[in-house]
Amino acid sequence: MTEVDWSKPLTPELEALMKLKYEDENPTAGAEAYKMDGNHEFKKKKYDIAIDNYTEGIKLRCPDKLLNAVLYTNRAAAQFHRGNYGTSLHDCIFARKFKSDHMKAILRGATCCLKLKRYDEASRWCDTENENEEFLQMKYKAESLKKSLERDKRKEEAAERKERIEEEKLLAVIQSKGVQLASMKTNKNTRLHPSLLTNLETQNPSGAKVHVTSDGSLNWPVLFMYPEHTMTDYVEAFNEQHTFEEHLKVMFSDGFEHPQWDTDRKYTTDKLLVYFEDRDNEVMYKVNPKSTLLNVLQHKRHFVHGGTPCYVVTVDGSNYQKVFKERHKIINT
C-alpha cells in the first residue's frame, strides 16, 4: 500500500475518505481519531502535520477532559520539537485547565520555562502534590540555573561598573589636557556625563581606542587621509608627545617601504602639508609638522570625532593642492 504524502494536496477520492473517517456524530471519537493520526505523524517527526491533526481534534470540543488535555499536551510536544517554546508552554497551560495534575503537561511546561530561561516559573510548575522524582530533579535544575544566571548577571554588572569607572577616568584625563571631543564642548568645571563615553568609540575594525600609557600620556588612534588618491593610513597608537613629522617620516622616507599608490613618489616629508577640519565652520587648519599631537589636539577649534583624530595630507605645489586651496578656506595654526 502506497503511503500518503501529506505535504501535497489530497486527491478528491482520498479527501472524501478522510471526511468519512472524521465525520462522526460522536466528537470524542473524532478527536480520538485525530489524536491517533497526530501521534502517527509525530513518531515520523512530521511535526507540522502532527500539529494540524491535534488542532483539528481540539476544534471538535469533545466532552472528554482527559482527551482534551492529551491533545493539548501532544501539540505542545510537537511545538517544542519545532523550537516554539512559548507556544508549547501556552498549550501546556491549556492542558492543565482540563487536567491540572497531568504529569506530561507539567513536565513539558517546566521544560519550556527552562528553555525560555524563566526559572522561577519552571520551579513553580514543579510545585505539585505529586512527589515524582522527575519533578524534584526538574525543580532542582531550575533553581540551580537561576542561581547561575544571577551569578553571571552580578559578574557582568560588576565588569560593566569597572569598565565605566575606567572610561570616566579616561575622560577626565582627556578633559584635563584640554582635548575636546565632538559633542563635548565643556570647560574643566563641567561635570562629565556618561553619554560622553560614546565619543570615544572608534569605528575602526582593529578596535584601537585612546588609552593612558604608563607615563600618563595618551596614545590615540589617528587617521591620515590622502584625498588626491582616496587613500588612508591608520596609526593605532600615536603618542600625544610625538610630532607629526616623526610619523610622516616613517610612512614616506626612503628608508621605509613607500606606498604603492604614490607612483610618482610625490609624497616626501619635505613637501607634505597636514590639515585638520573645523566641521562647524567649514575651515581647514594647517598643522605645523613639528607640532606634537597634543599641541594640535589642544587647538580651540579641534574636535575629535568618533574617538579618532583625522588629518588631511596633501603635497605642496601639486595640482591637487591648488584645487584644494580653491575649495577650502585655510587658516594657519
List its salient traits.
Cns1/TTC4 wheel domain-containing protein, Serine Threonine Protein Phosphatase 5, Tetratricopeptide repeat, 333 residues, single chain, 7-stranded mixed beta sheet, 11 helices, Ubiquitin-like (UB roll), coiled coil, elongated, 13% strand, Hsp70 protein binding, alpha/beta, 2 domains
Task: Describe the overall structure.
Strands 1, 2, 3, 4, 5, 6 and 7 form a 7-stranded mixed beta sheet that branches. The radius of gyration is 35 Å and the shape is elongated. The protein starts with 11 loop residues before the first helix and ends with a strand. It has 333 residues and is of the alpha/beta class. The protein has 2 domains: 105 residues, Serine Threonine Protein Phosphatase 5, Tetratricopeptide repeat (Alpha Horseshoe); 139 residues, Phosphatidylinositol 3-kinase Catalytic Subunit, Chain A, domain 1 (Ubiquitin-like (UB roll)).
